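#lab-general

N.A. 3:47 PM
ok so I finally got the sequence cleaned up, no stray characters, all 43 residues accounted for. can someone with queue access submit it? mine expired

B.Y. 3:52 PM
send it over

N.A. 3:53 PM
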Amino acid sequence: MKLSTLADWIVSAEPRLGKTRLVLIDGPSGSGKTTLAYALSGS
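B.Y. 4:20 PM
back already:
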C-alpha cells in the first residue's frame, strides 16, 4: 500500500475521539514504525 493511500484512508475515517484521530502502529523492533509515523505526520 502506498503511503498516500494509507494517509487518505486514515483521514477519511470518522474520528471517534472528538476531533482527535488515534493511529496505532504495531510491529517488531526495527520494522520502520517510527519512520512510518514521521511520514504520516507530514501527510
